[in-house]
């Protein structure tokens, strides 16, 4: 298991439904941004442009334990593990300010694919750089 990575997310009015609570699909966007910060945007772009490799969500499971509201700044806490040579498992949690438990928990499975959408091993250089951080 990796260390815990932290990524702050400001909740804007546009993220919410009519009641001022975050519309549930938006959590997938927050999780995606946090994962991109763990891996690094430049490394992802280089991986795609130079090697034709990228990552795709294979499976996502989300548990909603508390509503997240407009104007809050939440902490997205992310950990990951390698599951075989093609897949990474990500645990991502949304923490509201001062909370005693995560508001939302996401368990995301990512696979590495080439441009033809064939499974490829997760590049060692990417794993190494994420673990060294």
Structure description:
Belongs to the 4-hydroxybenzoyl-CoA thioesterase family. This protein has 133 residues and is α+β, with helices and mostly antiparallel strands. The chain contains three helices and five strands. A five-stranded antiparallel beta sheet has the order 1-3-4-5-2, covered by helices on one side.
Percent range for helical residues? Answer: 25-40%
State the shape. Answer: elongated
Number of strands: 5
User: What would the average pLDDT be, to the nearest integer?
Assistant: 95
Round the Cα radius of gyration to an integer and report it.
16 Å
How would a textbook summarize the main sheet? 5 strands, antiparallel
SSE arrangement, N to C: EHHEEEEH
Structural class: alpha+beta
Estimate what percentage of residues fall within beta strands. Answer: 35-45%
Low-confidence stretches: none
> How many helices does DSSP assign?
3
* Side-by-side strand order of the widest sheet: 1-3-4-5-2
Distance N to C terminus: 13 Å
Quaternary structure of the protein: single chain
């Amino acid at each position: 298991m990796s260390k815990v990575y932290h990524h702050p997310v400001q909740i804007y009015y546009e993220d919410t439904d009519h009641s001022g609570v975050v519309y549930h699909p938006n959590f997938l966007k927050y999780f995606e941004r946090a994962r991109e910060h763990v891996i690094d945007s430049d490394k992802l772009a280089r991986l795609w442009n130079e090697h034709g490799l990228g990552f795709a969500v294979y499976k996502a499971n989300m548990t909603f334990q508390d509503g997240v509201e407009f104007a809050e700044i939440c902490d997205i806490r992310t950990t990951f593990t390698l599951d075989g040579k093609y897949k990474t498992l990500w645990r991502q949690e949304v923490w509201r300010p001062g909370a005693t438990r995560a508001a939302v928990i996401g368990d995301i499975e990512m696979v590495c694919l080439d441009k033809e959408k064939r499974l490829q091993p997760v590049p060692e250089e990417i794993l190494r750089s994420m673990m060294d951080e």
